Amino acid sequence: MRIGVAGAGAIGGWLGVPLAAAGHAVSVLARGETLAALRHGWVLRRGGETTRVAVNAASDPAQLGEQDLLIITVKGPALPALAPRLAAMVGPHSTILPAMNGVPWWFLLGGGGELPPTTLKSVDPDGSIAAALPFGQVIGCVVHASAAAEAPAIVSHKAGNRLILGAASRDARVDPAAMATVFTAAGFDVNLSQHIQTDIWYKLWGNMTMNPISALTGATCDRILDDPFVSAFVLRIMAEAKAIGAQIGAPIAERGEDRNAVTRKLGAFKTSMLQDAEAGRPLELDQLLAAPLEIASRLGLAAPNMEALMGLARIFAVTRGLYQGM
């Protein structure tokens, strides 16, 4: 297959290197030092082993051309400006697979529970993403893995190896089962979902609190959950998100306390948003908090705790030049 990867960071490398090693023709959209490094190979380190593969790399999507599969792993804030350029990599038979955090642009394009089909302005302000990336060609994806970019074009896989895949649209023109076969053959653990929106919402339920709070405080997740005041605040936000999910066809049966107990067992780890904050990278507040708040508003649901966290995290990010949405 011709596989394009837009975003050569940690998750891009975790996905792209094994696919190239499995024999696919992988092209990577990158720039600067990463683009220069990719011309000497893309490296993935895991389990004491190092894999280096040759890939085609360019800064212009038009140079890479139409792909059979386009994997999008850029940070959410970068996608509205990038999407129109990505159209050069998408043909009528291409599959689009966003492997990104939080609520994606397509989440309610087919409606959800009590809501009719709608664009989420918080993550696709002018509709440019939806216009460039056809909804019927999207496969939704949830990543359960931890990886880090050690240096340009060098990625270290820390833990987890699972993908959940499912068609974004009921009328999808793409086949999640066929894509699952491709990823499984490359060594990934893949589950198919009949309703990928539910899986996306469930993952969001766990990280929409840990990520922003860790960025605000600089604390690892164990310290956040060990503080009784903060832990109670987290549970109130999770209750609001659970109520939203129930009305958009993405119900959650689990208790917040039980979900947090799983997170607590992971120990002292830094969230991806804390790592972004420390590195001076834009924070994905719109995907993790603004989009759920927009959905709550459309449903007429109150979410005061979620609003409080969004406000605090937004001020934190704006004062450091890490957020442009205020």
Name the structural class. Answer: alpha/beta
Instruction: Categorize the overall geometry.
Output: globular
What is the CATH topology descriptor of the largest domain? Rossmann fold
% residues in beta strands? 15-25%
For the sheet with most strands, the description reads:
5 strands, parallel
Mean pLDDT: 96
Classified in CATH, the superfamily of the largest domain is NAD(P)-binding Rossmann-like Domain
Q: State the helical fraction.
A: 40-55%
- Strand ordering within the main sheet: 5-2-1-6-7
The helix-strand sequence is EHEHEEEHEHEHEEHEHHHHHHH
Query: What's the N-to-C terminus distance?
Result: 41 Å
Q: What are the segments in which pLDDT stays under 50 over at least 5 consecutive residues?
A: none
Q: Tell me what the CATH architecture of the largest domain is.
A: 3-Layer(aba) Sandwich
User: Given this structure, which CATH class of the largest domain is correct?
Assistant: Alpha Beta
Give the helix tally.
Answer: 13
Structure description:
This protein has 13 helices and 10 strands. With 326 residues, it is α/β, with parallel strands linked by helices. The strands form 2 sheets. Strands 5-2-1-6-7 form a 5-stranded parallel sheet. Strands 3, 4, 8, 9 and 10 form a 5-stranded mixed sheet that branches. The mean pLDDT is 96.
